[in-house]
Amino acid sequence: MQASDTHIKWVVGSIDNEFWYDQITEGLHHCEWVTKWHAAWVSKPDLWYIDIHDDEGEIHTISPLDVLDNLKKSWMLGDHTFEEEQQVDQDVVDALLQGICFGELVYG
């Protein structure tokens, strides 16, 4: 896998944690299926977690490793919508979060 932007580093276990933390925490404000969420850094800039409460009362905890795994799966399936920083918009973040939390797109 290759990506030239700094927000993705295809080194095992490595993404730009601050970029994805910022994108996800901003994107959560726009996800209709999210009722509330809590985000915190465990060890900046390496580890964070986000607890996401969905509209069915479930709580999903995600970390940078979940994001990396999801991005790798998407990349292998030919989805490169996140390859360039400017391509990472609300729809990409919403799809990423649904993929991590539900394993598929559940909400339109």
Describe the structure.
The protein has 108 residues and is α+β, with helices and mostly antiparallel strands. Helix content is 34%, strand content 20%. The chain contains three helices and three strands, in the order H-E-E-E-H-H. It has helices spanning 17-27, 64-76, 90-102; strands at residues 34-43, 47-54, 59-62. Strands 1-2-3 form a three-stranded antiparallel beta sheet. A hairpin with a 3-residue loop joins strand 1 and strand 2 (47-54). It is globular, with a radius of gyration of 13 Å. It starts with 16 loop residues before the first helix and ends in a 6-residue tail after the last helix.
- Element string (H = helix, E = strand): HEEEHH
Beta-strand content bin: 15-25%
Largest sheet: 3 strands, antiparallel
Q: What level of helicity do the residues show?
A: 25-40%
Tell me, briefly, the overall form: globular
**Mean pLDDT over all positions:** 87
Terminal Cα span: 29 Å
Give me the side-by-side strand order of the main sheet: 1-2-3
Cα Rg: 13 Å
- Counting DSSP H or I runs of 4 or more residues, the number of helices is 3
Low-confidence stretches: none
SS class:
alpha+beta
The number of E-state strands comes to 3
